[in-house]
Amino acid sequence: MAFRLRKPLALAVAVTAATILSGCVGTGAAPAASEGGGAHTLTIWHAYAGQPDKVAFIDWALKGFQKEHPDVKLNVVSAEQSSYKTKLQTAMSTGQAPDVFYTLPGGFLKAFVDSGQVLDLNDELKKKNWGDGFIPSAMESVTFKNETYAVPIDMDAAVVWYNKKLFASKGWGVPHTWDEFLSLSAKIAADGEVPVALGNKDSWPATFWYQYGVMREQGSGVVTGMANGDANASFGPKASDAAGMLQTLAQKKYLPTGANGMSDQEANLLFMNGKAAMVLNGTWQIGMSADASKDFDLGYFPFPKVQGGSGDQSDAIAGVAAAFAVSKKAADKQDAVDFLRYMTSPAVMKKYVELRKTMVTLKGATTADVAGPVLAGIVKDVVEPAKHLDPFYDTTMSPKAATVYYSTLQGLIEGSTDPASAAKAIDEAVRAGK
């Protein structure tokens, strides 16, 4: 996922942001420092368009880098997450890779690594102990066969978010088990509200429901194990039960009407406007909810326990959401690496936490003073108590497997596939590893 849109913006704005010309920094006007004739041109692609908190961060970061490197002329291209992935894959397949590019970790990045298009950063990470500053588990998602090909930027954990003021006004209690969750959803629906905001037009929002279902029913580490060639890793019989959990929400009409055709932005508006009571999303939800009305009070709870499930019920979905890598074809690799160093410096990482209210991969940067009480609470209540942190399935899978994964979950929601068939299709796609 990770990859996650916020308030609806006009498409024209997103298109404009995606076509920033040479010398322009971020999604706004170019600062004066970038207008001069730099000795080098560095082409940077990123997927921070479409959300105000993301745009605020990348504009700030790019202007800071430009100020520190006035001899480098920036050619910045941005897009929102879904269109960005397609754009980058097309560029890679035609040999037109940008110098520096935003990437998902795991299988998405590995496809480019396997085709020989990404610079190995091992030697650079050893200089001045740069690599030692990262959380070790975060580095695993961008490291293949002991070689690291990107620097991880942020980490997200997925929890169930709810409107505390709405719950209090209705007398609804926070559920602790899946049965309690379904009972609560029935009450919410009977009261004329949408129990769960889900806009699955871009496919990734539904993934958390299936993954948590597998984790609670069967256990964590399934997709990671399969991706790493573990012959014993498999979606077992209980994966069908996990798929059934998502389909139950759709069949009981606990999701918005037409969830597969609704964007994540539209679903989030339902949630923030009190028209939907809950949403399962990553910690980026904090930033997405920053502009909600005074009648909205963001709360969270861990994904409910599944009674009888064989997985550890404390486990949480948490993993690297995004990273930056350097193309092997970069004209000036030192400028490109300098940009990665800058983006992962303490000052920039703390600013990221402050503006986006999400965890970062640099040790000691996600502090309470910049993270705020909600994020700090999730670290304390969800991340730290978890026996296992399972990385996002779709970023761990190969791109082809992820495509099957997305379409299969859409089929579950619309009712065109059954839970057993869905679990089998996902298992086969991940096992194929292509």
UniProtKB/TrEMBL annotation:
Keyword annotations of the record: Signal, Transport
Signal peptide: 1-29
Gene3D superfamilies per UniProt: Periplasmic binding protein-like II (3.40.190.10)
Pfam families the record matches: SBP_bac_1
InterPro entries with a match to the protein in the record: SBP (IPR006059)
PROSITE patterns with a match to the protein in the record: PROKAR_LIPOPROTEIN
Keyword Transport included in the entry's annotation: yes
Keyword Signal set for record: yes
Entry similarity comment: Belongs to the bacterial solute-binding protein 1 family.
Entry protein name: Extracellular solute-binding protein
